[in-house]
Each structure stands twice: as C-alpha cells, then as structure tokens.
C-alpha cells in the first residue's frame, strides 16, 4: 500500500470535481488516516477529493490560479446563440478563446491548466491553453473551428491575429467525419428518445441541424459558417416545437443529403497544414519569453 500524500503536496484534478475542470491545480491540506479522501485547497476553496481523482504534480509550488493567468488570454470571442444568430432576450453571453502562458510559467515546475474557466450570472468564459486549442482545431473539432470563425471577436492580440490569418490551415476533409459522424450518432440517440419517451431534446436537435448547415458550407467554401441567421426562423421553430418533429426530421434528412454531396465534392485537402500551425505555435512561445 502506498503512503498517504502529506499536506503541502501539489496536485491537479484528473477529472472534474465540485464544479472545477480537470487539470485544476491545488494543494493537499488534509491527509486521511484511513481511507483515500483528501482535503485539497483549490485557490482558497477546499474540497474533499478521492485519491483516484488526483495527480501529483511533483512540486510544492503554489498552484496557478485561473485568475493569475487571465491576463495572458490572447483571443476571446462571443459564441453560443449570439454568434449563431439565434439569440433571444434570455440568451447568455458565452466567451471562448485561448490563452498563452508566459515561458516562466510554462517551463517552470508547476503545470499550467489545459483551460481556464470563469463563470458569472448570465455569462461563461472558457479559454484553452494555446497548444490544446490548436490540437483540437487540427482534429477538426467543431467547437474550436467555430471559435476561430466567430463573427464577434472581443479580444485579438497580435499573437491571435497571426493564428486567425492561417485559420484555413485547420480545414480538411476531416470535417466530413467530425461533423457528419457526430451528427448521425446524435440523431440516432434523439430518434431513440422519440421512440422511448415520446419527446426529444429540441435544443440539441437545433445544434445538430446547425452543424450540418455549417459543415456543408465549410466543405464547399473552405470557410466555417458560424452565423446561421438566414435559417433563424426555421431553427427557432424546431427549438420551440412549433415545427412538428416529423417535419424537422424531413429537414434533417435533406440537410444530411446535402452534407453528403458537399463531402463528396469538397476541394479541401485530406489533412490540415500541421507545419503552418506548428510554426505559429513556436513563434507564439517565443513571444511569451519575456512576459
């Protein structure tokens, strides 16, 4: 049996706990005499966390609190319904983007969190660490590709502008898989919900329909479509249930056929331009040397 971790041990979360995301750094303040639950201080908030959810960071340096790294956010944009052209008076404001830690933090003994999260009434902000952000984009993650294409930027530093200038490097035929396969799998779940419970999550259905529209556009034009306001009336009719589910299903089938045609005739390359993205990341790290 391994020895208990002593108070003062620096740890991070393997998985989300108590509303904190995975990767959040903390310090053990109470070790169990029996059992495996530790008291961990996360930037002033103490949680009881099972040992299986903790990763020892190998240092007793104070953890990097999200607010300490917020000044290093390089890119922030409005996402969610406001960026999609589907907002109402009740819509929250969601901010997304990335941050670039200074070299002294990134190269030090402590670990920088994979993402920063901030929440306030009616607002939520998530900023990925730069490397994680571009890795997700290279995999054609729809959420991250849309962040790069948001029509509502809030903060764009020179480092971020350099990335936006090459955002086409992330686009490839992988979109056909990441958008198309995800949507198909999720609609199978919605169909099962309809058969089993007689109802579906309409808000999620709108999200999937929007992805089909956006994905087909990207495959045809090489640009990610974020604002789908031209389809606002139809999408909101699905969300409110005003459009019968049978008609929404027919629209979905039509959009999936269109997505398939776009995928079959796309001029996008088979793979993203990894070299261009890596060159940007190296230059960005160099820029952070003196921060």
Automatic annotation (TrEMBL):
**Cross-referenced Pfam families:** RlaP
| Superkingdom as given in the UniProt entry | Bacteria
Q: Which GO terms describe its molecular function?
A: transferase activity
Sorted alphabetically, which keywords does the UniProt record give? Transferase
Matching PANTHER family: NUCLEOTIDYLTRANSFERASE
Q: What is this protein called?
A: Nucleotidyltransferase
What organism is this sequence from?
Deinococcus arcticus
């Amino acid at each position: 049996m391994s020895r208990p971790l002593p108070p003062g041990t620096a740890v991070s979360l393997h998985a989300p706990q108590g509303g904190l995301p995975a990767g959040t750094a903390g310090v053990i303040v109470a070790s169990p005499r029996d059992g495996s639950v530790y008291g961990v201080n996360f930037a002033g908030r103490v949680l009881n966390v099972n040992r299986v959810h903790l990763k020892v960071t190998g240092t007793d340096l104070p953890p990097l609190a999200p607010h300490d790294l917020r000044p290093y956010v390089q890119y922030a944009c409005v996402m969610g319904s406001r960026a999609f052209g589907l907002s109402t008076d009740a819509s929250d404001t969601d901010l997304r983007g990335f941050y670039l830690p200074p070299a002294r933090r990134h190269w030090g003994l402590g670990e920088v969190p994979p993402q920063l999260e901030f929440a306030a009434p009616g607002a939520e902000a998530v900023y990925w660490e730069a490397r994680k952000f571009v890795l997700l984009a290279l995999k054609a993650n729809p959420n991250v590709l849309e962040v790069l294409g948001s029509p509502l930027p809030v903060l764009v530093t020179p480092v971020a502008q350099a990335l936006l200038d090459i955002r086409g490097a992330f686009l490839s035929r992988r979109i056909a898989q990441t958008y198309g396969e995800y949507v198909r799998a999720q609609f199978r779940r919605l169909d099962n919900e309809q058969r089993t419970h007689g109802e579906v999550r309409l808000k999620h259905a709108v999200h999937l329909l929007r992805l089909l529209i956006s994905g087909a556009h990207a495959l045809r034009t090489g640009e990610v479509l974020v604002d789908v306001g031209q389809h606002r009336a139809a999408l909101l009719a699905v969300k409110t249930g005003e459009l019968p589910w049978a008609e929404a299903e027919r629209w979905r089938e039509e959009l999936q056929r269109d997505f398939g045609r776009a995928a079959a005739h796309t001029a996008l390359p088979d793979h993203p331009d990894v070299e261009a993205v890596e060159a940007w990341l190296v230059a960005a790290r160099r820029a952070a040397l003196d921060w």
